[in-house]
């Protein structure tokens, strides 16, 4: 009964966010103050909210995806339902706070609450070691970025003499102050959105429930970084150095993450690296510093929320049925194409999601990705170096994205033509060779509460591409289509031969995690042990010695108190004689 009540509250809150977006649609932009508090003698902290087109867009995205996740979770989550629903609801409320805030400190509150909720949700299955480790890693790496974010708030607030977002950029500010403040904010964005060099936490967050992954990757947390730069775009546009840094980080990240996704062997890990790469495409659009670049980035954010949320919910059905995200397990069902035949709704909806992600013409991802390419081309044509870098990087990423989408689709849903070669390509030998062949008839699509949100998001993965009208640059569309086709054909060719390209450097994801382990984790652990040893063996030794000295002294003085009068008189006589002798010596 309690669990049901919590689920009703969770779904109701998400639908309330959607209703708020609908009611605010078309309303003139405005700022609202809802009280505040005096901090010290000079600073008034006010609760200020903002309503504009960006607010409505993000509320709609957050509300719809959150509602789909809450409904889907009814059929998915079976353990600790009350705490799970409460945390998802709080997570959604924190993102809503970020979206509607017109005060940097109020935004920071929602920003940090999201981080805390992500830690608890990723570690929902806390009995699993990988879930605990992934939750801790996400918490620490995002908090590292948030240190810079906090200092950035202070720098910009003091520089503009206001912490109100709508007032930033409206008054003069020293150029170096603006650059430092925006770069510090960018550090927090990089951490929250898992961009290089703070990208490793997101793929390791996959032990959490699949609907949680859908919420984090599609509508909250990682999307907050894109929203923040879009909200403060007039400030970032004035800091060209920061935009150049953002462009470099985005281009490196999208290629790095896409190449990792090409070699990953777990469904959710492929999707996680895909999220990192797609977010980088949004940041690349923002780094152009133009209105078209901003619009293209937000358009891609909208479509990405639909198809990435859909893909994670589809992955949840697969895990629910098969019990593992690894291709090596799913492959045993693909011998007869069982996963495609038995999970028909999942197959169709996941195909739609992968087509949108790969940029297949007609699907939402095709239009939004091409809008970023077109914005980059406009800049490149004007001689912008950043425009050329973004253009080439996004085009290469488009081909790589098509490769891993087709690879994932074929390995999961279709019979492997050369199974022996596939086994060797994955692990060198079959780790499940001693297990009995699973019964394909046991595979079932999820319940209607799981399938309904998937169908809704599948409609969005197609239809959202037409919400901004169809403004195609046919030359760019032809180029990106050819690139996607080349990437897909390469994946098909390798799959048809039972091969799987996993160079050591890609299989190990460039060795970034082990490098961080050696460069940061091991030294920190060593310093922690040194600090503990110093506290125990040095400082603690002095404390213990002082206490022991006091005990010994008290024991010695206690022995002087014997209660024997003759002993006292003898000691007094000896003392008097000693004093007399000492006086005589001094006098002579």
Architecture overview:
It is an enzyme of class 1 (oxidoreductase). Its main location: membrane. Pfam families: Proton_antipo_M (PF00361), Proton_antipo_N (PF00662). The chain crosses the membrane at residues 53-74, 81-100, 106-126, 138-161, 173-191, 212-233, 239-258, 270-289, 309-330, 342-366, 386-406, 448-466, 472-495, 568-587. The longest helix is centred in the C-terminal third of the chain and has 49 residues, at 512-560. This protein has 588 residues and is mainly α. It is elongated and about 120 Å long. The N and C termini lie far apart (100 Å). A two-stranded antiparallel sheet has the order 1-2. Helix content is 74%, strand content 3%. Strand 1 and strand 2 (43-51) form a beta hairpin. Among the domains are: 255-507, no CATH class; 520-587, no CATH class. Helix 2 (53-76) packs antiparallel against helix 3 and helix 12 (291-322) runs antiparallel to helix 19 (448-463).
